[in-house]
Amino acid sequence: MWTAFGPTNVAIHQVATAGELGDMQIAAELGPEVDTSGLPVERRVRHNLEVARALSAWNRTDEALAAVLEAEQLAPEQVRHHYMSRDLVLGWVRGTRGRPSQPVVDLAERLRVV
C-alpha cells in the first residue's frame, strides 16, 4: 500500500531507461501510452518530464510542451525546480528562430529560466 511498485512503474522505468540510453524513439512511442493516474504525483510528474524529453528530441515540441504543462498542473514546485523541465524549456527558448510561442515564454518565466 502507498507504493509505486507494479507493472505501471516498470513501464515508467522502461521509458526512462530508453531515454537515458538515447533511444528517444522508443521512449516517445511508449511514454504517452503509460497510464500513470494511479501513481503518486511525483512519479507522474517525472514520467511526464521523461516523455516531454523524448518528444522534444523528435521535434514534437507541442506535445512535449503539453506534457510539461500537465506535469506543472500536478506539482508546479517540482516542475519549477527540476533540471529536466528547466533544460527542456531553455532549449526551446534558445532553439526558436525569432520569438518563442507565448506558452513557452510564459512557462520559461514561471521556471525563471529567462
Features:
mainly alpha, 0% strand
The Cα radius of gyration reads 14 Å
Question: What percent strand?
Answer: under 5%
DSSP summary: helix tally: 7
Please state the average pLDDT score: 94
Distance between the termini: 41 Å
Number of strands: 0
The biggest sheet amounts to:
none
Q: Helix coverage percent of residues?
A: over 70%
Give a concise summary:
With 114 residues, the chain is an all-alpha fold. Helices cover 71% and strands 0% of the residues.
Question: Describe it for me?
Answer:
With 114 residues, the chain is mostly helical. It has helices at residues 7-20, 24-30, 41-57, 61-74, 76-81, 83-95, 102-111. It is 71% helix and 0% strand.
How are the secondary structure elements laid out?
Layout (H helix, E strand, L loop, with lengths): L6 H14 L3 H7 L10 H17 L3 H14 L1 H6 L1 H13 L6 H10 L3
